[in-house]
């Protein structure tokens, strides 16, 4: 599988997630994954069970989640993904996030770590109803 294929399948999985079912994305992560959902300045989520709970919470709030992949690059076992995410926060507030994610991939093509980098101002505005 190419890096581009893996990334497109991962984010297609995210687009299918709901507050009740996050397996379409969760299946791409190793059991001992370390996931920095809100950037490396926040504590990571560790393990698939914690990640499942975090994804369920996230997708109970976010609706109509769509991802546009801009570019994909690799160095060693790290894959870099530039993307635009569009969603409805709480089902009503349109949010657009410009992000770069860095994932480390194991030999089984499962992500062992993931870090997202983005400006949290847009999410904060949506949470405040602005």
UniProtKB/TrEMBL annotation:
Q: Which organism is it from?
A: Talaromyces rugulosus
* Gene3D superfamilies noted in UniProt: 3.10.450.50
Record's protein name: Limonene-1,2-epoxide hydrolase domain-containing protein
Coiled coil residues, start to end: none
Q: Where is the Limonene-1,2-epoxide hydrolase domain?
A: 43-126
